[in-house]
């Protein structure tokens, strides 16, 4: 190699974990390069189209493992582009979880009180707002009414959607054509670019090695824009600091592949993976009963038939998020839209003999698609996931030109996880089958294992070196100057959508990264405002940031 | 729209597999690949073969292997269950629908050594029906695609984009959790 490019900070991945440090470090004066394996899509490229090769398949990856499949973002902006923008904060009890290690799994420095100011920073930046009942789409309204009928409560879920721009098209998983979803493409990333950060799409990082000056050399390959199985070039960049944020399904794989050069990884790299305890149930709604029992009407003679309409999850029942309940019995039940394609096949026909994911009865169920309602359950799982030896490149052996691959994750749910899924399934059934409102069945795990859209904890923070890969400032144990700031740093399942917590932890990690960069001679300061210049979040985190900088 | 010309044995075998996943009505009285187990167009009419042959799936080059392997499994299944197969059609096509179903169940069940292989074929057969992944969605709807039409997928606006001006019941339908922090919308 004749010459290797140099930068101060190399960020791997441009989702919440990557975009937030990239912005703050660039704004603070560091030279920042962001490598993203997926494409950089403009709003006009975000298609309303299921055709293979449209943004629907360009922008995310579906990786099938042994017992677990992971759906993740694969584009500049990462998960923020393909997610459904639900941004609740994690309940207080989550930070006290003990899980499979049987001691508090979160670092002592972090609980809900200490994280709240960082949540505030994210809420100010995107922004995240509460939703009003008057704009909740039909599916969320139906779920709320069913919960109320069953004596439960239900909440509109805080969201990073600008409702003045949203047209309720429900194409969020292909990216937002209308810039209504406040993805990172609209805040942190353009602000980072404005401060000089360079974002390189279609650059897939393969491994890290150490340089003689104590920094790191990051090796990447360039991915073909149409066929992701094809790599068209390769290169390397030297950096004084590396921020790994490739997603919980990819970050540990990069570290595993780097081990021959970097030396031994902490035991927890590639272990303790959590699918955020996720599971889905599909209800086929009885339109007449919805009208007669719940009194719902759309004004055009229909009671519901609103599955296609809306914007992902809008209403959740949080009655079981009660800290006084035993661990593994706390969960949320959230209404969700999931588009045809990858999800539909996994729905089972309610009441039919198993397996019932295909055949004549399933086809008949598809004919009632407009009357479907999906409930998304997030329980407390047992961090059962383990990654096998890394594939030759990337984090999976790609099958299709885009979207689909086989990964090395193995996930065999424990009795705790299976019991929690069963309890939540029964709860969904009791709410929605009450008085004949619907018929309900969980998705099958037989085809692609359990299924998560929120992979977590494969490289987690903690105080115990035996069970955590990172210290509480997100620095990789034994490898100074490498930080992990994506969902893989979150210690365990959150019982709610995790984007807000991943983002808040990334904000909290920045002061430590700035300090490490300064120690390596980078002329960088901490203290940028929100991407739009707002400063109230910065004031609220000032004391904690100073402590993290000076520890 | 799907090609309705007589199919070669391998194509017939793949059609029979797709029709087992999401069955439909026969294209003609003498149609053997489609078992006729459900009314309306099924996966085949929805374009399963066209989608399977699309290079973007990553399995297009292996379809002959799929058909040959399915033939082998059908022969084994028939022998195991003492079934006499009509030799004028491929073995999987010759299986009665309930036996096709049982064999697909076995091939896609946890623990089957070829499970990932068959799940892929089922997935793309499925996607032909539920998302017409080989077609532009707007055009598929305009031409009456059997799957999208059966599901009741609505049509987009003139510019090809979906918008739902009417989308909400417009009123509160439940009490919120008593510990809700109304300034953030999350639990306190």
UniProtKB/TrEMBL annotation, chain A:
GO molecular function, one term: flavin adenine dinucleotide binding
Keyword Nucleotide-binding applies: no
Organism: Thermobifida halotolerans
The protein, known as: GMC family oxidoreductase
Keywords: FAD, Flavoprotein, Oxidoreductase
Start and end residues of each Glucose-methanol-choline oxidoreductase C-terminal domain: 451-506
Organism domain of life: Bacteria
Family matches, as InterPro entries: FAD/NAD-bd_sf, GMC_OxRdtase_N, GMC_OxRtase_C
Region annotation (Disordered) ranges: 529-551
Family: Belongs to the GMC oxidoreductase family.
Limits of the Glucose-methanol-choline oxidoreductase N-terminal domain: 68-271
